[in-house]
Amino acid sequence: MLAAERRARILDLARQDGAVRISQLVTDLGVSHVTIRRDVDSLVEERMLDKVRGGAILASDRGDPPAAATATIGVVIPTSYYYRFVVDGIGDVMADHGEMKLAISEYDLAEEYRLVRELVDSGVDGLLWVPSVSERDEAPEFTSFVAGLSVPLVFVEREAPGGGLGTVSSVRSAHERGAMSALRHLRDLGHRRLVMVSRGSSQSAEFVRRGWADALGRLGLDPESTILGPNELGAGPTWERGSADVVLDMVERIGATAVFSHGDENSLFGLVQNARGRGLAVPDQLSIVAYDDDVSAHADPPISAVAPDRRRVGAHATRLLLDLIRERSAEPPVQLQIEPRLILRASTAPPSVR
Fold it and tell me: Which of 68, 222, 258, 339 has the most CB atoms within 10 Å of its CB?
């Protein structure tokens, strides 16, 4: 376990209980007293904890002036509402640790190469990057570009493409587990045949679809369950006219009793309205679960949703990068996954007999 992982765990325990004891941390984390004391001292220096006899407590707000800047990091993210909250998490950590230089891309890898080079040339100490690459495909040019960078790098909400062992650490949401949790909830309610909506082409969409595929086998869902994607619904930034009808036509054609929709939350409002117009009341005749939770609570009825903790992803990625900048560690890279939450609302119920 790297220092970043240990310190993140120590902070989580401190937030849960208000305090941590050195002896208990040694037992829980399985490392020496010296290592734990060094981690706690580092968190005290960062003003995250206050030292007390035998351990530490969450730092009190004493109105102290902010610590001097210690690092300048470059951040390259796509133009997406999703990453606003990731940036908030990065900013939470960097407020006391230095400066963040933010660059926005348009899901264009060639443009991201240019932005990364500019940030490195400007003298940043490290990089957080959401690269526009598929996790499934080999990418020799991308791998070569990454290998040539002269500063520490952490991927955010992405992993190195092609599978196997990588050379870059990453922090991302555990999308597969979020999808599994949503589908297990529907299974436990009695749903067996589902329609999934997934138009995305990002790694996040790949991971959510991987969770869907895994759940079909593990949870005993009906193999007639199906996915509707860009071929059926279009690949533009919003659903094309009539897309809700395409989804509901499939629901009725295969006798599905629930819909699991990744992204495109705003389109769920139209889906609920169109379902009601067909006599498919939500949730009495059709249950719906969304993946992402920006507007789901405001639908009628409020929609159950998987909520990735994007702010926490940004914060953990930043702490990991700062550790890499400080330590220049030669240890193998770390792949951290932050679990989402499943928020249950009024859009799911046991299936009725139709």
Answer: 258
